[in-house]
Design goal:
This protein is mainly alpha-helical. It has 15 helices and no strands. The protein is 80% helix and 0% strand. It is globular and about 70 Å long.
Length: 474
């Protein structure tokens, strides 16, 4: 049971799920701040308020989605149906989000908030079950890491397609009108994402069955039980801190390339694409490294290296574009090694929680981690927007003040560097190392076997008693 392998085609299908999310979701990470300020016409302060406002609502909705998924029973499983049924609504919301309405400023702020909220909630209805799916695709820990590597390679390929095609499509389809160009380009990419979601649904299967399959407890009981998992809250903190460096850098990328490097569209596309290629390579390295070394140790030393590397890149003169690009490529390779490991650790915490409490609460676990991720995304976007607003940034000006340029460089290099150091400290707080997880895995396997044998025995006894003739006393 524990060594059940997942086929390559199914791993590719699993990777297609996050590729579908990121071929448009990547536009949110990389371009939405810039789109809102320089194309849509909002102030940086309004953008920061939108980011934070949506996250406040999702602090309630995301855990509820996870609890709903934990209680779902269907012929397709617990998590796969959500990928199928929410794919089209997500695509529609993405196109609406990149549509500029003919409203006044207040109306445009409200429209941006509502469409971003709708996109985020439909995204959660896909991505929370999708992330949970990675925990039930196999009993074997290394197979889970492998699936996560395929997942993040899928993310890399989708992001590469996005970075290579979005800006050229905006110019081609917009014919000088960037707002129209963004809308049409996002529509095309969304249709591609829809096909990826359907492929993921068709190819992936759910295999891991909890020791006690049914969960009829109340929501409050589930919350009480998951809090007994002493690794869970530490994992939430790690997930939140770990996403900050990447999201802050992404939110600052377009500003850095446009105003600090003063690059044209061709170099921007090349620079970002080379970074994405580095991410794909990093994702592929996660599995072979975790085969030989403890995941927590890999995560810790990678974070320390990135702390030094990101801080060092600050001192490169922006005019040295080749050196800057090479440094950015290395940064992305090493950064991305940690991402599949982070998500596979979530599955380990899921196993550890079942081992300790007797209940497998996959949906709550991943929904709260996903919420931590999105809070990190929101704070990253809000931090960049607020810092730009404080520095006097104006999206309508081709040149920015020295103060603004300094803030952009800090956001692109220094803030991520500090966040990498915090990530290393958070990793140190976890105790679910390789040795402990071997014990957990073996014990859960025994429990499942014993529970299955007991269930079969009781069913057999019930059948014998049902058909045994009644003996009358004399």
């Amino acid at each position: 049971m524990n060594k059940q392998r997942v086929g390559i085609l199914e791993k590719i299908g699993y990777g297609m799920g996050d590729a579908g999310c990121n071929i448009v979701g990547g536009a949110v990470f990389l371009f939405l701040n810039y789109y809102y300020t320089d194309i849509y016409g909002l102030t940086a302060a309004s953008v920061a308020a939108i980011w934070l406002g949506v996250r406040v609502i999702e602090a309630i909705s995301d855990p509820l989605i996870g609890m709903l998924a934990d209680r779902t029973r269907s012929r397709w499983g617990k998590f796969r149906p959500y990928i199928l049924f929410f794919a089209f609504p997500y695509v529609v919301c993405c196109v609406l989000m990149f549509t500029v309405p003919d409203f006044g400023y207040t109306g445009k702020v409200i429209y941006a908030f509502v469409t971003y909220l709708m996109m985020s909630i439909t995204f959660s209805f896909i991505n929370i079950p999708y992330c949970s799916l990675g925990s039930v695709i196999s009993y074997d820990q290394q197979e889970r890491v492998s699936c996560q590597s395929y997942r993040f390679m899928g993310v890399g390929v989708a992001t590469l397609v996005l970075t290579l095609s979005l800006l050229p499509l905006v110019q081609l389809l917009g014919k000088g009108d960037q707002a129209v160009g963004y809308q049409r380009a996002v529509f095309i990419l969304s249709m591609l994402g829809l096909a990826m979601f359907i492929t993921c649904f068709k190819l992936v299967r759910e295999r891991v069955i909890p020791v006690i399959p049914k969960n009829n407890d109340s929501i409050f009981s589930d919350i009480k039980d998951i809090l007994k998992n002493d690794q869970w809250l530490k994992l939430l903190l790690l997930t939140f801190v770990n996403v900050l460096p990447g999201f802050v850098r992404m939110a600052a990328t377009m500003y850095f390339l446009n105003y600090v490097v003063k690059a044209d569209g061709t170099f921007i596309t090349l620079f970002m694409s080379i970074g994405v290629i580095g991410m794909i390579i990093g994702s592929a390295l996660a599995k072979p490294l975790s085969d030989y070394f403890c995941k927590l140790k890999i995560f810790f030393w990678i974070s320390l290296f990135l702390f030094i590397c990101s801080g060092s890149l600050y001192f490169i003169n922006p005019e040295y574009r080749v050196l800057l690009t090479v440094g950015y490529f290395i940064l992305n390779v090493v950064h991305q090694i940690a991402q599949p490991i982070n998500w596979s650790i979530m599955s380990d915490v899921d196993d550890y929680g079942e081992w300790k409490t007797g209940k497998r609460l996959t949906g709550i676990n991943f929904s709260c981690n996903f919420l931590a991720l999105k809070i990190g995304l929101a704070l990253s976007g809000a931090l960049v927007s607020s810092a730009l607003a404080w520095s006097g940034y104006h999206g309508t000006q081709p040149q920015q003040s020295p103060e603004t340029l300094f803030v952009i460089k800090i956001m692109f290099f220094v803030v991520p560097s500090v966040c990498y150091l915090l990530t290393a400290l958070c990793v140190r707080m976890l105790s679910i190392d390789r040795q402990l997880m071997v014990v957990v895995s073996e014990d859960l396997t025994k429990r499942r076997t014993n529970y299955s044998e007991l269930t079969d025995y009781l069913a057999e006894e019930e059948g014998l008693n049902r058909y045994q003739p009644e003996v009358k006393s004399s």
